[in-house]
Design goal:
Mean pLDDT: 83
Strand order of the largest sheet: 5-6-7-8-9
Largest sheet: 5 strands, mixed
Radius of gyration: 20 Å
CATH class of the largest domain: Alpha Beta
Number of helices: 5
Number of strands: 10
CATH architecture of the largest domain: Alpha-Beta Complex
Order of helices and strands: HEHEEEEEEEEHHHE
Strand content: 15-25%
Helix content: 10-25%
Shape: elongated
CATH topology of the largest domain: DNA Methylase, Chain A, domain 2
CATH superfamily of the largest domain: DNA Methylase, subunit A, domain 2
Structural class: alpha+beta
Distance between the termini: 31 Å
Length: 219
C-alpha cells in the first residue's frame, strides 16, 4: 500500500480511493480492515461504499469499492467539520443501445459457427444489469460482460469488451463506444489498438468520482 506513505507525507484533508469491490473481502476482509486501521493511525475517518455505475447513468454494470477518508482534525474556515453520506443512485435509464454506433467497421464483427444466440429480440428487455443472450461454445469458461445491454457473455474473442448482438450483427465495441461506457467524452485521447481499451478498462468512471466527491458535506 504505497499510497499510505504518500498520505503520511502530504496529509491531504480529503482522500478518495477506488478499487475492485473484492478489496473489502480479500483474506476474509483483513485487507479492508488493514486499510481502515492504517488510515485511522494517520488521523483519518474512513467511509466505504460499493457503488454500481449502472445506477448512476453510466451504461455499464461496473461495481467498485469507493473509500472516502476525511482528516479527523479537518475544519473549514468557519470551524465546521466535513462529513460524508453515501451517494444516492439516480437510476437514469441509459443503456448500451443508447450509445452504440450504427456503422461500425467490419473489423469489429465476429463470424463464428460456434456462436449460439439463446434469446430473440422480443424476449429481451433492457435492465440496469448485464443481460446474457448467447454463448460462444468454444469458450469453456465464459466471462460475465460488464455492460448492461443485449450481450453475449464470453471470454476469448470477446474478452476486451464482450460481444454484442446488434442490428448489424454480432460484434465487439469500438473504441468510441468503450469511451462512452466509461463516461468519457469521445474526444478523450487514449492509445491506439488494444492498449487504448486497457487504459479505459483500468480507469475510474469520472462521473462516479464526481458523485462521491459531491457527497462530502459541511456539517
Amino acid at each position: 500500500m504505497k499510497y499510505i506513505g504518500i498520505v503520511d507525507y502530504h496529509k491531504p484533508y480529503i482522500l478518495l480511493l477506488e478499487n475492485v469491490k473484492n478489496i473489502l473481502t480479500i483474506d476474509g476482509g483483513n485487507v479492508g480492515k488493514t486499510i481502515e486501521s492504517k488510515l485511522d493511525e494517520l488521523g483519518y475517518i474512513l467511509h466505504k461504499n460499493i457503488l454500481n455505475a449502472s445506477y448512476f447513468g453510466i451504461p455499464q454494470a461496473r461495481e467498485r469499492a469507493y473509500f472516502v477518508a476525511l482528516r479527523k482534525d479537518m475544519k473549514t474556515s468557519n470551524k465546521r467539520a466535513l462529513d460524508y453520506n453515501t451517494p444516492k443512485a439516480n437510476r437514469k435509464n441509459i443503456f448500451l443501445e443508447d450509445i452504440l454506433e450504427t456503422n461500425a467497421d467490419a473489423d469489429f464483427f465476429i463470424n463464428r459457427k460456434d456462436i449460439r444466440v439463446l434469446k430473440k429480440e422480443y424476449e429481451v428487455e433492457n435492465k440496469l444489469e448485464p443481460i446474457r443472450v448467447g454463448i460462444v461454445r468454444k469458450d469453456l469458461q465464459p466471462k460475465r460482460t460488464r455492460y448492461n445491454s443485449i450481450g453475449l457473455l464470453v471470454g476469448g474473442v470477446g474478452a476486451r469488451t464482450g460481444l454484442y448482438k446488434t442490428l448489424q450483427g454480432i460484434r465487439r465495441l469500438t473504441i468510441t463506444e468503450a469511451k462512452k461506457v466509461m463516461g468519457f467524452p469521445v474526444y478523450h485521447i487514449v492509445s491506439e489498438g488494444v492498449q487504448g481499451y486497457r487504459q479505459l478498462g483500468n480507469a475510474v468512471v469520472p462521473e462516479m468520482i464526481g458523485h462521491v466527491y459531491d457527497s462530502i458535506k459541511v456539517l
